[in-house]
Amino acid sequence: MRPCGVMDVNYRQSLAMLRTRSQWIGMGVLFTFLCVAGRVLPPEIVDVMNMMFVSIVAAHGLNILTGYCGQISVGQAAFKGVGAYTTAMLVVRLGWNHWAALPVAALAAGGAGVGFGLPALRLRGFYLAMSTLAAQFILTTCFLFAMPGIVGGISGITVPFASIGGFSFRVSENLYYLLMPTCVIMTIIARNIVRSRLGRAFVAVRDNEVAAEIMGINPFGYKLRAFFIGCLFAGVAGWMRVLYDGCVRPDIYPLMASIWLLGTIIIGGLGTTIGPILGVILVRALNEMVLMLSPFIGGFFPIQIATQMGAGLGLVVMAVVVIAFLVFEPRGLAHLWEVLGARLRHWPFKYELA
Amino acid sequence: MHAISQYVISGVFQGAVYGLIAVGIVCIFKATKVFNFAQGHLLMMGILLSLIFMERLGARVGIPLAIACAAGLGWVLERGIMRPLIGQSIVSALLMTLAVAYLLDGVATIFWGTKIVPYPQWFPKQTFPVGTLEVNSGMVWTMLAALGVFIGLGIFYRRTLIGKAMRATADSHQVSQSLGIKVTRIFSLSWIIAAVIAFSLAIFFGVHVGAFRYVSEWGFRAIPAVLIGGLDSILGAAIGGLLVGILEVIATAYLGAYIGSMFPFIVLLIVIIVRPHGFFGQPEIVRV
User: Fold this and answer.
1) A163 pairs with which residues across the strands?
2) Cis link prior to B264 (omega < 30° from 0)?
3) A34 to chain B nearest CA, in Å?
4) Does the distance separating the beta carbons of B257 and A127 come in below 8 Å?
5) Tens of pLDDT along chain A (354 residues)?
6) Coil, strand, or helix at residue B130?
7) B85 contacts in A (CB within 8 Å)?
8) Are A307 and B113 an interchain contact pair (Cβ–Cβ within 8 Å)?
């Protein structure tokens, strides 16, 4: 929502991502922070931020598919796994370097997405979600059982860490300077996709498929494109995850991870670019807080319960937050963010934003 | 021949379990148009709660108490969590059931952890001869319970006034409301029925598998059964469950666990492409 009085007077302004001076200043501050954070902040926090970057890229993909195109996907983690396994197999079995594996991994995940999106020809809405559920189960079963000699079976594949020259991305402070730019670039790409012709067509398909078809948008084609792009992002996230973990295993990409991503974009706000970012930050931060607090809370309970508290409490907190957002703020953190901006602009006057 | 009939019987058992999970999902979907992803988690809660009640109070008090708890749980879930979402998009409702699944998972982990606890054998353990085979009582009782639930539900939906009201609600919320049916009450009732079905499956199924958290996985594995049969058909749930159960067991036996565990989903993909609304479901008509 644009504030009153900010108007575009030429096409360049109208197309610009950052329009006002305060946006430029805010972005400058954020950029400087991101650049120095890897060196200044303590390593544990940098590690959490690395994890956030991976999740943000995957969440952007899911947001394009679910938030913009309206196709619920409960298989995002499996598509992430396709990217990760492609990377691992190319690097370990064929001896490629990590950089060459990135485009192949992304395309492999995107191709898998198109494959499981094909039922979109006859299905709509939530039946299509079932196709992605099938994808989740079929793909994770393949990770676990298919050709153990190549895919790695239950123990997975150990992947060497990436490096450029002598600069190794093994420690999290160095890995930060690989994952952060990737995440920033993918965010810019996501933002540009959704404000292009493609993104507008996605929104039309989401809002009313039949109406979109009457207006000359081919829903099937655009749904497949949404699947391809969403899973492409998942593939990139999978590639990042391999660099982060240094291995691939079937249990890194379970159904619960897919559902976790869906919850994240709900909390952040479906159909906004800032939503997945805010959602991932909030959920990861909550998760870390639960992990920090659970020994403390566990102290009040008998020892055999205390050990289960950590895992269970994380799930409960996540569920309660998602439920609270769905009931009280279905538009997510992104909407709260806008309300906050409007409040600040009009301060000290009240100006209700719908 | 011996092997085949063995597979068919364990397939029918697995099918009965899938069918009972599926029919819970169908009951909720018929009335509220919400697909309940948490049905397997209701089953898990059923097993864990009835385990506690039975250990403390014995089977005779514990089982009715667990069923009463199920009705309460179903009502609380509908009234407290699903009701505020009426009128919102189908995506939010779906995600809400996933959040419920997460919540129940978390609660179960906090109180029970991830270990397997033996479930009390509350009915006599014996084997029944079927032809040349011997089938243990847990399987037989589960299959009979499934049969009972299906016949009971069939009679309930066809013969009783409230069952007819529920079918009317499934047809059109607006029309049934204008005819004096309390739609919100029907919603609550269908959640209660689904929870009770899940808990009654739990007390039989628990004996067979033991009490542990990952029983909830069965809820997701029953989804092919729901969709193959058709989302709004009780008969479809029964037949879909049987079909998926038998196919899965036979595929596992002859093609290995690798193909077997994903076989229902491959069948699901084929069926929803060929017949998007399953074999017994009603196609929906979309207007602008």
Assistant:
1) A168
2) no
3) 32
4) no
5) 667 777 888 888 888 888 778 888 989 999 999 888 888 888 888 889 999 999 999 999 999 999 899 888 888 999 999 999 999 989 888 888 888 889 999 999 999 999 988 887 777 777 788 888 889 988 988 888 877 777 777 777 888 887 777 777 778 888 888 899 999 999 999 999 998 999 999 999 988 888 999 999 998 899 999 999 999 999 999 999 998 988 888 888 888 889 889 889 988 988 888 999 999 999 888 888 888 887 777 677 666 666 677 777 888 888 888 888 888 888 889 888 888 888 887 777 776 655
6) strand
7) 326-327
8) yes
CB contact under 8 A, B99 and A127: no
**Most A CBs within 10 Å: which of B91, B100, B105, B217, as the mutation test of the A interface?**
B91
> How would CATH label the architecture of B2-274?
Orthogonal Bundle (1.10)
| Interface predicted TM-score of the whole assembly (ipTM), two decimals | 0.83
User: Which residue ranges make up each domain of chain B?
Assistant: 2-274
Whether pTM exceeds 0.90: no
Q: Say if A130 is an interface residue toward chain B (CB within 8 Å).
A: yes
A173/B contact by beta carbon, under 8 A:
no
Annotated domain spans of chain A? 41-253, 256-354
Q: Which two tokens stand for residue A13?
A: 């302004």
Query: Amino acid identity, residue B170?
Result: A
CB-CB under 8 Å, B94 with A123: no
A13: closest CA of chain B, how far (Å): 35
Q: From residue B171, give the alpha-carbon distance in Å to each of A174, B167, B278.
A: 60, 6, 18
Among candidate residues B89, B79, B87, B93, the one with its CA nearest the CA of residue B37: B93
Contact A322 B95 (CB under 8 A): yes
A308 and B106 within 8 Å at the Cβ level: the answer is: no
SS3 at position A87 = helix
Closest residue of chain B to A116, computed from CA coordinates: B269
Secondary structure letter of residue B62 according to DSSP: H
Distances (CA, A) of A45 to A114, A173, A349: 36, 10, 38
Q: In this complex, which of B94, B100, B101 lies closest to A126 when CB atoms are compared? A: B94
Q: Which of B96, B273, B288 sits opposite A210 (nearest CB)?
A: B288
Cα-trace Rg, chain B: 19
